[in-house]
Amino acid sequence: MAYLTRIGIRSKFFSTRGSAPILLAWVLALTLAGCAGSEKHDEALAAKRALEFAKVVLIEKDFVKGHEMLTESGKRHIPVEKLKQTVASMHPRGYPKKVTALEYEPMVGEKAIYIFLSGNTGEDLISYRLTLEGTAATDYKVLKIDQGMGFPTFSNKKRSFKPAPDIS
Q1: What pLDDT was estimated at residue 162?
Q2: Nearest-CA neighbor of 90 among 153, 41, 149?
Q3: Which domains does the chain have, with CATH numbers?
Q4: First vs last C-alpha separation in the chain
Q5: What does the alpha-carbon distance between residue 84 and residue 100 come to, in Å, rounded to a whole number?
């Protein structure tokens, strides 16, 4: 406090008398600001939309219908033919017969959620990560699909589905 006075910064915010209410107000304001960006997600609804997309694209191989299920941004950036090529390149040894939603991870402060799927071809297990845009209030649409193992976790929010929903 003495240092602030010496350099000419003197304010009621730095006063030692009556500082508890001011400090409490600052803590409350910062807490509310931190919560303002959090979105309410419905992981069960997001998993349902991810599985619907997976059924259409991975099991039925209906890429036109799958393209219609993408977000507007996804449709602009991924033409139907590119979707077909991308999905085909993910499955050199065959497509899954059954797909299960294993985990989910909300993107903190974003209107988006990751849904992690596992596809079973009968011989192989294939891991997918679908990025869905939306919230519990607005519903969800698929933005993109990735295939691979060991997707990095970007927060401590990754959780398992219990029980794991699936489609075949």
Answers
A1: 84
A2: 149
A3: 2-36 (no CATH), 43-167 (3.10.450)
A4: 68
A5: 21
Residues 82, 87, 92, 94, CA torsion sign: negative
pLDDT along the chain (168 residues), means of 10: 48 49 46 56 96 97 98 95 96 95 92 96 94 96 90 79 81
Q: What pLDDT is attached to residue 76?
A: 95
| C-alpha 127 chain-centroid distance | 16
28, two tokens: 């409350």
Q: What is the pLDDT of residue 19?
A: 55
Which residues 6+ apart lie within 8 Å of 29 measured at CB? none
The H or E element spanning position 65 is: helix 63-68
36: left (phi over 0), alpha (psi -120 to 50) or beta: alpha
